[in-house]
């Protein structure tokens, strides 16, 4: 004779107690998706800033192909803006690479 107590409140209470007693503790990995390491996030930022720098340098080269001595004021203003962007992006790129290198060194030390 088999007794089925699956639907009984006593069975569910015992089952809850056993789960609470023997269940493994919830770890950080179980509740949150794997987040990339800081160095990986910074590597992505290096790539992004590097791509922006390359695009700005290409645009500056296009300006360099034209004769800026006879250019209008608007063209000179655009070139100055482009040049300022290149300089800013170069500083950002150098800073980001330095932060990425520090993160890599921290991870491997």
Structural class: mainly alpha
Question: What does the largest sheet look like?
Answer: none
| Share in helix | over 70%
Find the count of extended strands (DSSP E, 2+ residues): 0
Q: What sort of overall outline do the alpha carbons produce when their principal axes are compared?
A: elongated
Beta percentage is: under 5%
* Mean pLDDT score: 79
Explained architecture:
The chain has 109 residues and is an all-alpha fold. It has a domain at 35-108. 75% of the residues lie in helices and 0% in strands. Helix 3 (38-65) packs antiparallel against helix 4. The radius of gyration is 30 Å and the shape is elongated. It starts with 8 loop residues before the first helix and ends with a helix. The mean pLDDT is 79.
Key descriptive features of the protein:
single chain; 109 residues; mainly alpha; 75% helix
Could you give a short description of this structure?
Helices cover 75% and strands 0% of the residues.
List the helices and strands and how they pair.
Blueprint: H1 9-22, H2 28-31, H3 38-65, H4 73-108
